[in-house]
Structure formats: C-alpha cells, structure tokens
Protein: U6 small nuclear RNA (adenine-(43)-N(6))-methyltransferase
Amino acid sequence: MALNKSMHPRNRYKDKPPDFAYLASKYPDFQQHVHTSLTGKPIVNFKEPEAVRALTCTLLKEDFGLTIEIPLERLIPTVPLRLNYIHWVEDLIDGQKQPRRGIDIGTGASCIYPLLGATMNGWYFLATEVDDICFDYATKNVEQNNLSDLVKVVKVPQKTLLMDALKEETEMVYDFCMCNPPFFANQLEAKGVNSRNSRRPPPSSVNTGGVTEIMAEGGELEFVKRIIHDSLQLKKRLRWYSCMLGKKCSLAPLKEELRKQGVPKVTHTEFCQGRTMRWALAWSFYDDVVVPSPPSKKCKLEKARKPLSFTMPEAGLKELQAKASALGCTCRSPVDSLTVLVEKTLTELRVLHKRVPCKKEEQSLFLTAVENTWIHGRQKRREQKRQLRELPRAPHCDENAESKSTPADEPGKEVTESMTGEQKEAPEKVTGEDVDMESSTCTETGQEADLKETPAAASETPSKQPVSPGTVKHFLFKCLLNVIQEQSDVVIEMHWVEGLNRDLMNQLCTYLKNTLLKTVAKS
Structure:
C-alpha cells in the first residue's frame, strides 16, 4: 500500500524521494548502508537501526543543514513522516511566516520537531523530556545547531504533560502543541502481539525506542486522554492542541471524548508515507481558528483504484524468454513469454487464474486467491524436509524383490518423489528492496519491496482446483493481472477487484516480481 502520493502537498519528499546514490557519494557514513538490488538500484535495509539512523541524519544534513546525534537505543525518527506533521501544524495555525510558539511533548533524543520548526519557520519551542538520555542528546543537538535562542529543552518528571510544564509560564500563550504519544500499552503490543491485524504483513522497518518513548500505561489512548484532561484546564493557553496516533482505532474514541467534553473545534488528518500510516487529532477552544478539513473519502477511493505494478526491463527479457521456451512456450513476444512464466508461478502457488480478452500486445489474467501460499514458504519447506528425514528408510532389496513390490508401496514412493522434486524447484529466498524511508512494498509507483519472509510455498501438494476461478465462493481476493508492452520494457499491473485485504494482493505482486528477477539473476 504505497501512499507517498498522499503525503502533505508541501512535503519536499512527496514527488522527489531521496536519491540514495547521490547521498551515498556525498556522505561516507551513509554510503556503507547503501546496497545494490538485483535491478541495479541503490537500496537501504530498514531492518537495520544503523541504516535508519544514517539516513535520518543524512537527510537532515543535506536538506535542512542540521547536524544531529541519536543513540541506537532511542527512537530514530523518519524525516518525511515528521515533515507531514510540521506542515499540518502550519495549516492549523494559518501560515508559517509569523513568529509562533509551540510545545513539543516528549521531544526525544533527536529533538526533531523543534529543530525542523525552528529551522524552517523560525518557531520558538518549549521541548519537554522525561528520559535522561533523551534530554542530554536533545540539549546537545539544539546547542550544536546554534538554535538555543529558539528551542528550550526542559527536563520534567515522569507522567508530566502540559500542566506541570507550564507552571512557571503563567501568562504565556502558545500557538500549538505537538506530541508523538507512546503507541503501546505493554511489551506484547510493542512486539505486535494482539495489536496488529493478522492479515497485515510485518512492519518493513525496525522498531527502535526507549521504554518511555514507545510504552505508556493504557497506551496512546489513555495518554492522549490525559492531554485532553490538561487542555480542559488550560483551554485558551494554547490555540491548538494536537497529537499523532499510531492506531486508527484510537481516533474515534478520542473524538468522542472531545465531543462529550464540549470541545468546540475538532479536526483530524492522515499522515502517509510508503506503507506507513499515522493519524493526527487536533482540537481548540478558540472560536476564530480556521479548521482544516479532514481527508475526504473520495480521495481514498481514488487511491484504491490505482493498480500495483512493476517493470521488467529490456535487459532481462531475453533470459525470461529463454526460460519460457524451455517450458515449451513457442511464442516470440516478450509479453507472451512473461505471461507463461507468471502462469507457471501462479499454478505452483495454487492461485486460480484464467486468461481473459484484452487489447492487442497485452495479456490479461483473472486471478482468484483462495489461500495464502506465497508467505512463510521457507518455514514450510523446512518442516517438509524434517518430515522427509523422519520417514523410515526402505530396506535394501534386489531387482527381484523390487519387481515384486505390491501396489500399496507405489503411492508412498510417488509422494516422496513428488515432494523431493518440488523441493528442488521451490524458489529460494529473495531479499527485496527498501526504498521508502519507513516502508517497503510493491507499489503503485513501481517501487521495490522488502520480502524478508516470502519464498515460494509451491512445495505443498496441490489441491484440486475448480474449473473456473469465478465460481469460487470463498476466497482471499480477486484481481486482474495485465502484462503490457511499454516500449522496450514489459510492465505487469495488478488491479484490485474485491476481497478481504489489499495487502494480500500486494504480497503476491511482490512475490511474482522477485520470482522473475531471480530467474534473470540465475541466467
């Protein structure tokens, strides 16, 4: 689910993602974390905390002239996502040219919101922090960027939000507050247990952060309710109160809480970057504030209609055509050859498919996925090998004894041979690419994906398939796959039709792409 096109319109990374090759050539500390993909593109592994930190520090230096230090054991922010929040605050306070005063609740070791706000807009910040390590790093980052006149970092007691932080400033009126609440209520939630939809793929980037940064009693829901409680006492001491949320399910109960408390002005938005989504909530007790409109449902529907796609470059098409010929394909067109290879992979994965009419120079397949066979295939193959090792060995017998084997022996032999053969043919693990700052997935923009655990599951014994995919009553999703010639390259598009979860189609799209890339790499 690539959502970069839904980033804030003023976000500098919306239409121009970072150039990893250029940054690597300019910054040696970043260069060691940039690798080359199978397609020759520079990539970064977002599972490595050192790589994430190097990218964040490099972007802040290159695009904002900021030099910061972040310890690996504390939260490492991603710059594009933080920029979304900064730009939305600009919208809330109606402009960025006038001097503004803001509060960053829990600024973190990076102190990224105050540093960006002060550098971009000249905003004054009161940045609070409860963690000793984060406080020391934040103070150092402010001082080494000569921003002490605009950013004041203060150490506050545990569980302090707004009330205690403003005790000494009884007359000061602030324009806004910002906050990244701790998302999780306990260690299990932080690890994704019982807090993540089972159908969603695992996060594509590493989760870093200290205990106070990622966990709080009651999670983000109770944390933000405490901010709401403080705002009911402070009221017009701040023109806008705002928080960023990590879970969409937190938004509705918090809006309901504000409604019950009679807060007059409430709005929300979405922050999108790659496969990462965050939600933000803001409220005000002022009658004269301009309330930005929430995201429209129409925009969401338009996003959903965009196909997933990836491109097979001309350089690898000859190898793919040779592979298709080895399978008995007599067609000369790259489109037809790629279609044959895709059909072979779909058959191995037990994804129902049939060809449907389409334009000339194209091929189109209607897919119905009944079960998820393209994820966690490596574990399945390991289990299968273990079972094979545990099978009792047949006693040694001569040709005469073999010729006397009973029919009952043959099925077992066939199953064993079949399983062994399929094991040999099952694709190996293919590591995909991380190209977005906090995400990686097969995308509408053709960006690469992180497939840490998506080898083939083709080694399972195929089940009997219905004659027509359209007759299946219970399925995961249905989609239309198009193979299209575009100049010298071939593009594969997958258009969502219906189903349980679009992310499942995303996984399959990435699996198909990596399978084709592996074929080229082996040739």
Observations:
- The chain has a mean pLDDT of 77.
- The chain has two domains: 4-12+77-305, 308-377+427-522.
- The longest strand covers residues 489-499.
